[in-house]
Each structure stands twice: as structure tokens, then as C-alpha cells.
Amino acid sequence: MATILELARHADVPPDSVIRVVSGEPVNSQVMARVQEAIEALGHPPYPYHAMEAKPVEASVELVRRQLLESFAQTTAELESRLPEGVGSVVYEALRVEVRPVAEHVSQIEGLIEHLVRRLERLDAGVDAERRERLEDIALLTELITSGWRTVNTRLGRVELILQRLEASNSNGARDPRHLHLNP
């Protein structure tokens, strides 16, 4: 029996193509032929893919974990047999030297992003408060304008009343007064 990864490596196709073939999904005819040849050479995987979906999640995770560990062990053995002894320490040191600055930069970026998020939250709160204040200002201005027009309307009503009295007194033959006294 072979794993999905072993079949994919042998057939020189991606693992998802092997999974499609095993689960009966449609794939390219060339891919299908290569995967079938790999299955004939190495053996069928220990499970059909669609049956794996029905298993509990824990069993699936454990199965995938075992397959990955087997794959890592096999790849490690292949690398150890191919690489000279000193290359491993050189690669390790090179990775350590290159990865540390990247990790520091990622850490700094995370800190800057957190700082940016906090500032945006404060800015959002400030904008909301300012918006409420502006709405209150608009409500106050509207009320002032409305009350001002009510006062003008009241005064115009009084002036019209006085004019009506004057017109009525003129039509009765009274003489024009020189001074008008407006009573509030």
C-alpha cells in the first residue's frame, strides 16, 4: 500500500490529482493514466478518499499525521543519504542567520499593526464624538432660526393689525395721525 504523497511523487502529479482519481472525480486522461500506473506499481492507498470523509475527524487527522510523518521520515532519509555531512550544519546556520532578521521584522510589523489598530479605534471614537457634537450644533441652529422666524411672524402680524386699524380709521374720515404708537 502506498500513501497519496508517494503515488503523487511516482506519477509526477500533484497530490490533489491523486485524491481526485482515488475518489472517482473527473481528471485529465493523462493524469488518470499516470496515477493508475503508480497505483499498479506501488499499490492502492489504504483508504478511498470519499470513505475518509465519513470517518470521525480525529481518525482522519491521525491518519494524515501518520502519513506526513512517514513522508518526512522518508524525505529526511533521502536527504541524509544524498548530502555530505557538513552541508547540514551550513544550511542550518544559513537558515538561522536569514530567518532571525525576518522573524524580527515580522514581530516589528505585528507591533506596528497593533499600534495602528489602536490609533484607528481612537480616531473612530473621536470622529463619532465630533459627529454627535456637530449634530447637536445643527439642532441648536435650527431651533434658533425657527424661533427667530416665529418672532418675525408675530411682529409682522402686529404691524398688519395696526395697518388694518389705520385703514379702517381713514375710511371713516379721520385724519392721518402724525405719530403711530405701537402697542406690544
Q: Determine the mean pLDDT.
A: 81
Order of helices and strands: HHHHHH
| Poorly predicted ranges | 49-54
Rg on CA atoms, Å: 44 Å
Helix content: over 70%
Number of helices: 6
The major beta sheet can be summarized as:
none
Distance from first to last alpha carbon:
108 Å
Strand content range: under 5%
Structural class determined from secondary elements: mainly alpha
Shape descriptor reads elongated
- How many runs of DSSP E, i.e. beta strands? 0
Give me the secondary-structure topology.
Blueprint: H1 4-11, H2 15-23, H3 29-42, H4 49-54, H5 57-82, H6 85-171
3D architecture notes:
With 184 residues, the protein is mostly helical. It contains six helices and no strands. The protein has helices at residues 4-11, 15-23, 29-42, 49-54, 57-82, 85-171. Helix 1 crosses helix 2. The termini are far apart. Residues 49-54 have low confidence and may be disordered.
Quick recap of the structure?
The chain is mostly helical and 184 residues long.
Task: Identify the notable features of this structure and list them briefly.
single chain, 184 residues, mainly alpha, elongated
